[in-house]
Design a protein that fits this description.
eight-stranded mixed sheet, 8 helices, binds S-adenosylmethionine
Length: 255
Amino acid sequence: MTKRKKQKPAPGAALPVDALFKDKRPRIDDFDFGKRTAAVFDDMLDRSVPFYAEVQRMMGEMAADFAVPGTNLYDLGCSTGTTLLQLDPLVAPDVTFIGTDYSAPMLDKAREKLTHAGFKRPHELVCSDLNKGVSITNASVVILNLTLQFVRPLGRNQLMRSIASGVNTGGCLLLVEKVLSPNSNLNRLFIKYYYDFKKRQGYSEMEISQKREALENVLIPYHADENRQLLLDSGFSACEIFFRWYNFFGMIAIK
Ligand SMILES: C[S@@+](CC[C@H](N)C(=O)[O-])C[C@H]1O[C@@H](n2cnc3c(N)ncnc32)[C@H](O)[C@@H]1O
């Protein structure tokens, strides 16, 4: 049985705390994934995404079952490489990991973390923009963990078709997204519960509201059913929800 390695910060280095929206901003610009965000991103995800660690663990066990020796595993929007590191001890060693992101600072962090962890398996970190398409080949697993929501809606159908065409029969896609509820009351309540969660994680009302404003035109969530339809229309067959917490959901789709 393979043992999961617990991720540790570099010796003597505490996880840098996300205080990006702590101070009152005179003007709220669109959220971006540049250097300042990359520097605190691990803490941001840890404190902003409900059950982040558990979803990573679940993706690990599913990826381990679907990954086939001699194929590729893609993590699209891999950020600082957390998922690739979590998956490494669980997935057969002759599966090549390919992490992609359009943010060079995120990939720099990922490279740093992989090096620090002594990551040995064949892998690539590729800087590319999903809005311009993607090239997927010989894939047994593709992961989109909180990434599709940042891709322009007009391009999502084409993108998902390109992904599906590069997945081998029997391979899977793991999609985790923020979602909208079709019922406006429930939608409002779920968002309120989410902001209450963020308060429990130490974010102030001002931080929450400034970040919400910054994300408004950048993070465009679909309904869970729209995501399911998108996957079915793109060439995946069985789709099943594996995670749900208010306005967050995870779905596995098999080709
Ligand atoms: C919320 S983070 C993903 C978290 C990560 N998958 C994980 O498991 O820790 C979204 C990532 O998607 C990347 N991203 C957003 N839009 C993108 C695009 N159009 N093309 C490529 N990457 C994109 C961002 O740079 C960011 O690193």
